[in-house]
Amino acid sequence: MHRYRTHNAGQLRRDDVGQVARLSGWVHRKRDHGQLVFVDLRDNDGVTQCVVNASSPSFAAAAALRLESVVTMTGRVVARGPESVNLKLPTGEIELAVDEPDAVLAMLTPHLGTDIEIIGLYKQAAYAARRFELAAELTSRRSRAEERV
Q1: Considering the entire predicted model, what is its pTM?
Q2: Cα distance between the two ends of the chain
Q3: Residue 34 — left, alpha, or beta (φ > 0 → left; ψ -120 to 50 → alpha)?
């Protein structure tokens, strides 16, 4: 087994049910439902939902994960129930049931912020660039006016 992965996140399908898989990638989304933590694990190939049960030794580590954390998760591929199949995802018929003690290995990553924070920073940078453009234009007009005098 490869140190970080046996499959890519977008590779697992219904035919892989029952296999043990190790996935590595970024935490795309995390939902804490009390007794279950759902982690959408993303890599360059796609997204796979990982489920950690409260009885798992990995539960505390999974609950502490933040968005964009780099993680490796190991578990058994299980079929989702008919009511929870997500047809929008190629991997929507399966999920990774994480149950091993060392299953959640997270690397230290800087907090990138929420989408709203990132959009706010982008707008601030855009406003600063526009102010710079306006100031440069005003300076250019002034120098042209001085040349005419």
Answers
A1: 0.67
A2: 78
A3: left
